[in-house]
Design goal:
The protein is of the alpha+beta class. It contains five helices and five strands. Strands 2-1-5-3-4 form a five-stranded mixed β-sheet, with helices on both faces.
Length: about 160
């Protein structure tokens, strides 16, 4: 089957990319756009390592065909930071809370946390755990990750007050 030329809007930038109709968004982000923060773990939508945000919704990019994402607003982990010199408050909170071990799941966790905090700016611990239910981490017991998201919620709330 021949490749199709599509437009992808990723992190506010438009890219014209030739893709196979069967290629996942995760593959295209990593292999064609060199945005390797999005990880491919299980490739069946169970681990959450490939989580990105499309039009405000958290999705598994390994299960999303790239052609389905054309002309939609896609945000990856690379698009969160305001600049190369300043991390997003969620990223800062993960660092400050020591919520990163091997790092493989981190981008997906952070993207899920962003989606959660946009919907619910001050979630309870149970709501945070439910918000992460599609993300797996083999290194931790999730305690530091939950703490990081709670800290991020506080940072984001404080930023809004300023």
């Amino acid at each position: 089957m021949s490749k199709r030329l599509i437009n992808l809007n990723v992190n506010g930038h438009d890219y014209e990319v030739a893709v196979q109709p069967w290629q996942s968004l995760a593959e295209v982000l990593r292999e064609e756009l060199n945005l390797t923060g999005t990880k491919i773990g299980c490739n069946i939508g169970d681990c959450g390592a490939c989580t990105v945000i499309i039009d405000g919704r958290s999705v598994s990019s390994c299960l999303t065909l790239a052609v389905e994402a054309r002309d939609r607003a896609i945000t990856t982990i690379e698009g969160l930071a305001e600049s190369p010199d300043r991390l997003h408050p969620i990223q800062e909170a993960f660092v400050e809370s020591h919520a990163v071990q091997c790092g493989f799941c981190t981008a997906g966790m952070i993207m899920s946390a962003k989606h959660l905090l946009e919907k619910n700016p001050r979630p309870s611990e149970d709501e945070i755990r439910r918000g992460l239910s599609g993300n797996l981490c083999r290194c931790t017991g999730y305690v530091k990750i939950v703490e990081a998201i709670d800290l991020a919620a506080g940072k984001l709330a404080a930023d809004k007050e300023v």
